[in-house]
Automatic annotation (TrEMBL):
Organism lineage: Bacteria, Bacillati, Actinomycetota, Actinomycetes, Glycomycetales
Gene that this polypeptide is encoded by: alc
Keyword Hydrolase belongs to the record: yes
E.C. numbers: 3.5.3.4
GO molecular function: allantoicase activity
Protein name in UniProt: Probable allantoicase
Allantoicase domain segment(s): 29-178, 198-326
Enzyme class: hydrolase
Annotated metabolic or biological route of this protein: Nitrogen metabolism; (S)-allantoin degradation; (S)-ureidoglycolate from allantoate (aminidohydrolase route): step 1/1
Biological-process GO terms, alphabetical: allantoin catabolic process; purine nucleobase metabolic process
Family per similarity comment: Belongs to the allantoicase family.
Length: 341
């Protein structure tokens, strides 16, 4: 039986979950795999990284051009849907359904389902998967950012966005916590600061220009905006970024990448590790160059659970990579999370 929410039941203050990474982001490997209909506007628009753009009275052979996914006017029973593969599987804490510029053609209600299919399933397997509700049928508003908190602790690999009955949606964001598959880690060295491996940005002294999570996302930085950048500091002190590692582990190599930061790179940086209440230096204060990937081999054999990157006095860091090995206990805990129902 379909569960229907009263208006506003799921339209909650997003609070902390809006700060979690978008697991469906194209930059993380997300993809829109299928939709039952995309007569007016293509499904791939749902996970575009940039803000929605709109030019009224611009018409193509399908009608008004929309930066989003739009289906035909449904004349039969049922509803429309699109399936998104998460770039990084994990637990979902909140969903954003943005109907920007869809005014007379937005869906009055939406729902979101999820499934878990590890490995590399094909579309037939995905369509036949055991789907569970993340967001039951809920009211949606036109030309609005509709926010839905999710209370689900299971690992998700795919989500299905449903429009009841039809219409258009500009963007879908699926905020959550990565839950990586530890079978590929074994005893191999890995980037303990990588979002894809389960690391998380837990704090930053300043995030004026960009979301700090950019510093631990996959791939090479694409532009000056692709990373972490602070405002210009006008008072004494310096800026910092805190990263909780994928698990307790020993960091042996650090990469501090200032690519694209030509006139706003930090002058110096240092790394401070924390293992419970104990703090120790991984990298002493070291001079950095602008627009340069820096690689430092560390004289370290102590495990840590988190690392604070200090930059002096301000500026940006395109990417932070901390290569090392998980402890046996940390790897066992990762396996436990992966195997949890």
């Amino acid at each position: 039986m379909t569960q229907t929410l009263e208006p506003g039941d799921h339209l909650v203050d997003p609070g902390h979950w809006r700060t979690l990474p978008d697991l469906a982001a194209r930059a993380l490997g997300g993809a829109v795999l299928a939709a039952n209909d995309e007569s007016f506007a293509e499904k791939e628009s749902l996970i575009r990284p940039y803000p929605v753009v709109h030019q009224p009275h611009t018409f193509g052979h399908k009608g008004q051009l929309y930066d989003g996914w739009e289906t035909r006017r449904r004349r039969e029973s049922g509803h429309d849907w699109a399936i998104v593969r998460l770039g990084i599987p994990g637990t979902v804490s909140g969903v954003v359904v943005d109907t920007a510029y869809f005014t007379g053609n937005f869906p009055p209600r939406i729902s979101v389902d999820a499934c878990r299919l590890d490995g590399h399933p094909d579309l037939t397997e995905i369509l036949e998967a055991d789907w569970r509700p993340l967001v039951p049928v809920a009211e949606a508003k036109g030309d609005s950012v509709n926010e839905y908190a999710v209370r689900d602790t299971g690992r998700c690999t795919h989500v299905r966005l449903n429009m009841h009955p039809d219409g258009g949606i500009a963007r879908l964001r699926v905020h959550g916590t990565p839950v990586p598959d530890p079978s590929g880690f074994a005893d191999l060295p890995l980037d303990l600061a990588a979002l894809a491996n389960g690391a998380t940005v837990t704090g930053a002294s300043n995030a004026f220009y960009s979301n700090p999570v950019g510093a631990i996302t996959p791939g090479l930085p694409a532009s000056q905006a692709d990373g972490w950048e602070t405002a210009r500091r006008r008072e004494p002190g310096h800026e910092w970024l805190d990263v909780r590692l994928a698990g307790r582990g020993t960091v042996r190599v650090a990469e501090l990448d200032t690519t694209h930061l030509k006139h706003n790179a930090p002058g110096w940086a240092s790394l401070e590790a924390h293992d419970g209440e104990t703090a120790f230096t991984l990298l002493p204060r070291t001079k950095l160059q602008p627009d340069t990937p820096h690689r430092f081999v560390l004289d370290n054999d102590r495990p840590a659970t988190s690392v604070r990157l200090h930059i002096y006095p301000d500026g940006g860091m395109a990417r932070l990579r901390l290569y090392g090995r998980l402890t046996d206990d940390a790897l066992a805990e990762m396996r436990r999370r992966f195997d949890a129902p």
